[in-house]
Design a protein that fits this description.
Structural class: alpha/beta
Strand content: 5-15%
Largest sheet: 5 strands, parallel
Number of helices: 10
Strand order of the largest sheet: 2-3-1-4-5
Low-confidence stretches: none
Shape: globular
Length: 198
């Protein structure tokens, strides 16, 4: 079973690559979706977050107030570490369950783990390949402002909070350059798919 890690900085085009691999037949396991799933109302993870950060991180409906929690921990490395200590083990367990389920369903499946925080949480896992979506920070900043509606200050803060590009590129087995057109990104992704299924 090829187990592939796909990572990249914010606005790097990682989601475009993941969608294309899924279209080609990969089983894409989305780390962000798992985070949302393990933080559902009534979950041990959500209970632990509320115990650690206070009940005001929950909405009136008992759901996680993501924006409220983010504003509380953003820029505070100690708070981020405490949050990660709650969330990451649950995400690791659930992702492993989904990897196993994919292989049980099809022993020849190509499983792609779409994981923004690979360096922060999973770099040492036994990946067959680590694929990095890469575009220069200035271009990613432009995308955050024009496509996601962030202010310049918000975009700069989000970029500054992430692992720097040099560290991400240093662990890459494959780099997909997403600075060009969508078609160029998709062509590189198709080349990767051909390699994975050869």
């Amino acid at each position: 079973m090829p187990l592939i890690a796909l990572t990249g900085g914010i606005a790097s085009g990682k989601s475009t690559i993941a969608r294309r691999l899924a279209e080609r037949g990969a089983v894409v396991v989305d780390a962000d979706a798992i985070v949302r799933d393990v933080q559902q109302p009534g979950s041990p993870v959500l209970d632990a977050i509320a115990a650690e950060f206070g009940p005001d991180v929950l909405t009136a409906a008992g759901e996680l107030d993501r924006a409220g929690l983010a504003s509380r921990v953003f820029g505070d490395p100690d708070a981020v570490a405490r949050l990660n200590a709650i969330v990451h083990p649950a995400v690791r367990e659930e992702s492993a369950r989904r990897f196993r389920a994919a292989v049980d369903a099809d022993p020849r499946a190509v499983v792609v783990y779409d994981v923004p925080l690979l360096l922060e949480a999973r770099a040492e896992d036994p990946w067959e390949l680590i694929v990095v979506a890469h575009a220069p920070a200035a271009l990613r900043r432009e995308r955050l402002i024009s496509l996601r509606g962030m202010t310049e200050a918000e975009a700069d803060a989000r970029l500054a909070a992430q692992v720097d590009d040099a560290r991400r590129l240093a662990i890459a087995d494959v780099v997909i350059d997403t600075a060009g057109s969508i078609d160029e990104t998709l062509a590189q992704t198709d080349d990767l798919w051909a390699r994975l299924t050869a």
